[in-house]
Amino acid sequence: MSVLLIEPFYGGSHKQLMDLLQEELQEDCVLCTLPAKKWHWKARTSALYFMQTVPTSSNYRFMPEHKLARLDKVIGVKRNGDAYQSEGLPGQQESRAVMKTSDAHPESGLCEPQPGLCTTQHEGLPSPAAAPVQAEAPQSTNPCQGEDKQRLTFNLSNILSGLDYQQRPLHIAWPHRWEHDKDPETFFKVLMKLKEQDLPFHVSVLGETFSEIPDIFSEAREVLGSSVLHWGYLPSKDDYFRALCTADVVISTAKHEFFGVAMIEAVHCGCYPLCPKALVYPEIFPAEYLYSTPEQLFKRLQNFCKRPDIVRRHLYKGETAGFSWAALGSKFRSLLAAEPREDL
To answer: What does the pLDDT average to over 91-120?
Structure first.
């Protein structure tokens, strides 16, 4: 049996999970992806794209007979030996020809569907016959990055090394994508209010940037000034975890979140979490770590700025071990190896 992994937003924590599954299930795993851009469009239209490009195989199409019969009537699926081949799907023949090219390479974006190799990475949702392009690395298009980013990245350890641990200002981390659905506006308005009151704090703004960056980032960078310890994406995971390990508090202001890997990682690194009392967060974090309004978030941080020792002595009251691969690996394997059921 093959495992087919489909990821229309191949970046950040999504990429991290897909890469982990592909590595752990490498004996027979096919991965098909699209670049991590414009998630709202990917959510609406990527199914159409994958319908045309994912190679048909009975090895991973867990579909009971009654659904196959229905599919027969709708799109003309014909049974040919042990495999099902779809006809009448726009671009299906072209995509199959491209994917079966014997000398295709992974870096081309399309390749033969062999274990651990098939990764389709396209700029938008073109026809399958269009020339493939590679997924782009996060670009430093933000004027707030560039030289400042390099200068700040490991000034962090220099700044902190000369200060007694308990005397350092509160260090706040925001490890999210620089996009509107993570609500950076609320986060920075709270920090600017702390700044107006001359409360001491440091901030590390982490996470990936894309072609469109909310204006609040450039405004906040100027206002926060010397309070900034780090500003921008850290490609090295070790550097990223090192930054989190020096932070005291990790903040989420997200308006759209199904899980929140960045928050779990930060807590695992010793950060005190503050999350909205909404979305998935109440299912993961105890009530002590939730806030309902920006005013509540401000008051919590105001107290922590005055008494950073409160969070530095704090022991997290929730559990993170259950989210580790050691705990979940066997469950993923069991799920992906499940026999087909009538309700699938």
So the answer is: 33
Single-letter residue type at 102? S
Residue whose pair of structure tokens reads 């003309």 in the numeric block:
76
Task: Locate the DSSP E strands across 164-242.
Answer: 170-175, 201-206, 228-231
This prediction's pTM = 0.63
| Two structure tokens written together for 225 | 């000034």
> Contact at 8 Å (CB) between 135 and 10?
yes
pLDDT digits over 190-211, tens only?
A: 999 999 999 999 999 999 888 8
Instruction: Report d(CA 55, CA 338) in Å as an integer.
Output: 21
Give strand pairing partners of 5.
Answer: 31
Q: How many CB atoms lie within 10 A of CB 339?
A: 7
One of 3.40.1280.10, 1.10.10.350, 3.20.20.20, 3.40.50.2000 is the CATH number of 147-313, namely 3.40.50.2000
Beta bridge partners of 83: 80
